Amino acid sequence: MSASQGGDRTDTGERMETKSENGIVKARDDTLVWQRFSVPYQYPVAFLRGLFRPENPLFTEIVARDDIAKRHRCLFIVDEGLATAAPDLEKSITDYFAAHAAQLELISPIMYIPGGEIVKRELAYIERMQDAIHAHAIDRHSYVIAIGGGAVLDAVGLVAATAHRGVRHIRIPTTVLSQNDSGVGVKNAVNFKGIKNYVGTFAPPWAVLNDFDFLDTLPHRERIAGISEAVKVALIRDREFYLWIEENADQLATFQPEAEEYMVRRSAELHMHQIAHGGDPFEAGSARPLDFGHWSAHKLETLTNHHVRHGEAVAMGIALDARYSVLAGLLPKGEDERIVVLLETLGLRIWHPALQGTDANGTLSILVGLQEFQEHLGGDLTITLLNEVGVGVEVHEIKPEFVHQALDWLRARERN
User: What is the pLDDT of residues 122-132, one digit of tens each?
Assistant: First the structure.
């Protein structure tokens, strides 16, 4: 059909259109119009020491980067554990704001909230923080600044993302796990009815400021646990980084500053690269490669009432999935042993009796957790396993018999 007969079509990118003989463009279907826009996200991630030393301008530059002429209002919400672990922190912040008073305003004394799972489990803390934001008239050009571990960052991030539909939020992670993994991401969440991270948002922060000095305040157990997330991301994305962790395991286990700082930074970079370039930053699909080792870990945390910390549970999940990968014929035999040896060298356990707990029907509780994990993801079950060290592979089925065999293997190793 020729153009003069009105048969040509124009695809505007919004809806299909036809051109009639008199030249009038009409929509072929008036019931559907596509709205399309994209929003670029960018935020700085810093690695340093001495963030609140008065002579260090970084914090001021980050806060005032869009308007150096005004005085910026800031509300601090801090993990209450730091009141003991870092008793000079509040004075350091107060002195810093006094030194930079032309651009910074500390609108109230520091607000303290509990760290750990309690702040994610008890929604009263969310309401308390929302009340503070309202009471201090925090607007969309003011700042809510969270200092603490991953649970505190998750909870404060959720509050900041929902107040006024989003106020500016700065994360200052204080744990290995939050500096090398969760703190640099875009997720905020709290628990609901016992389900981990059920209520949440995707809301990128204004900035992430990793001050290595905070790591010196951590208990030994907490400091070790966070290394598991570096092992995880190395196993699925960077063989060279994994080899580096193996070579430096003793230095990492004894918190040698140069090794610890490189581990944190490289792990954070790999997590950031996956978020930015993995094609699914807001997790609209079914795959979660950064959740390698997590499907059992999340359930294990719940089963032990969080006596097993997140990083510890992830280490056990990594060990389980490494052995499963061998049993499934994905990972060469012996690589599971290699991975477990590394975890143990770092000071991480690979077994807890709750891994073999069952429900009233005799089903492994962690396999019930697998169903919950799929519900959380939506769509097809998609689990990341290992093809080789540094290379993850997605599978859509987990065979219970292999899970049982993997658990038996881990338990036998623990006994030996």
Answer: 999 999 999 99
